[in-house]
Amino acid sequence: MAAPGSSTLDAVAADTARSVLRDTAFLRLWAGSTASGLATWAMPFVLGLAVLHDTITPAALGLVLGVRTVGFLAAVPIGGVLADRLSRRAVVRWSGLAAALASPVLAAGLGRSVALMAVAAAVVGAGQGACRPAFQALTAEVVDPGRRQEANAAMTLAVRVTTLAGPALTAVLAAFLNVPVLLLSTGALWLAAALLPPPGSPAPAARGAGHRPGFVAEFTEGVREARRHPWFLGGLAALAAVITTGYSATGVLLPMVSRDRYGTEAVLAAAVTAYAAGALLGALLIARLRPRSRGWAALAALACYGFAPLSLWAPVPALLVVAAYAVAGVGIELFNVPWFTATQREVEPRLLARVSSLDFMVSYGLAPVGLALIAPAADAFGAGPVLAACTVACFLVPAAAALVPTARHFSRSAPA
Question: Which residues contact 367 (CB under 8 A, 6 or more apart)?
Fold first, then answer.
């Protein structure tokens, strides 16, 4: 005779064992997220082609991309609050549609009005920023807890494949299509991002009726929820340190080291490709890996980014620079996927989008700051001391984050 409830438990176990890649709802979500990621990546690359064709100036390109970043950062907290207040699916839909409608305006302003391009780019950036926390929260609604790590790995895997294959694909398309048509294609991608994801469950905050607090109060509630998880604050600090120092230093100084030390741009190209390939490998590995101390393992992987600035600081053969970037790529995904999965698991569901928006604000917001400060610091103190400081920060800050209570498992309680 079967134990009471055994059929239910068997059904849950069977559903958890089934690959998330066989789940139609997740595949729709994955396709929508991939479309938004491809559109986000493609826009600066396509506008770069416009500079090469003398359609716009480099200064105009910098202005348009800068305004897009401002729109992104402004919309992230708004999208987080709305996704928790209303519906995650609705926020994805309307933010994607906004970016889709702004893309033809961006194409219309090309070579005619930089001001019009800037306004359109701000709307595209806002759409991008609003949908990111909503996608994170929607993943938790569509995928059951046992399969979220695999789902997050599939999401980031799509990003890495796009990064590797995207330049070649765009170069091929550019041989047949002009820049305005390519920009219109990014609008089509945003339209797909808006329409493909499936409906999730109603946002927890939307189920109750009654008076809601204001926007600032709701966002502050998300900040309080983040503070309730010491592992989240420690991990976010470590991620911010790596992005501001290591990521920014290698982005600014790698081209210079490739040219001055090795006398060729091939080292730059090989290192960037190795990083993307390493990240791809990391996403494949973490889809199945389940470390016992998942938080410590993720932070150790994040610290591996320190090998990238270390390889630029030390006079090593070019092959070691490429290898260091591959290791950094593997490490960043061995951190990212458990990090997203832990956030979806540990954060109160009705506050998940707001906490995710805080993550994106720090991650994306500090990258331009680091990029802006590294070059002046290298001019003032020399590239060597700057790279040394960045190497130390990448190794030590994640190590310090590992000492934070609850960091070992990225959880307030040890896993069963």
Answer: 243, 244, 247, 248
Token pair 């070059």 is at which residue?
Answer: 375
Say how far apart CA 58 and CA 61 lie, in whole Å: 5
pLDDT truncated to tens, each residue of the chain (416 aa)? 344 444 433 433 444 456 888 899 999 999 999 999 888 888 888 888 888 788 888 888 888 988 998 999 999 999 999 999 888 999 999 999 999 999 999 999 998 999 999 999 999 999 999 999 999 999 999 999 989 999 999 998 888 887 777 666 776 777 788 889 999 999 999 999 999 999 876 555 444 445 667 888 999 999 999 999 999 999 999 999 999 998 888 888 888 888 889 988 889 889 988 998 999 999 999 988 889 899 999 999 999 999 999 999 988 999 999 999 999 999 999 999 999 999 999 999 999 999 999 999 988 788 778 878 888 888 889 889 999 999 999 999 999 999 999 999 999 766 65
- Is-above-0.90 flag for pTM? no
- CA-CA distance, 406 to 231, in Å (whole number)? 5
- CA-closest candidate to residue 95, choices 106, 108, 83: 83
Give Cβ neighbours of residue 335 (< 8 Å, ≥ 6 apart). 239, 298, 299, 301, 302
Query: Are 68 and 162 a contacting pair, CB within 8 Å?
Result: no
Pick from 315, 285, 287, 292: nearest CA to 304 = 285
- Residues 331 and 302 sit within 8 Å (Cβ to Cβ): yes
Q: Which tokens is 163 given?
A: 């990064």
Secondary structure letter of residue 178 according to DSSP? -
160, 154, 116, 110: which is closest to 135 by C-alpha?
A: 154
Encode burial over 126-160: b for 16+ CB neighbours within 10 A, e otherwise.
bbbbbbbbbbbbbbbbbbeeebbbbbbbbbbbbbb
Of 43, 30, 61, residue with least CA distance to 155: 30
CA distance 346 to 207: 21
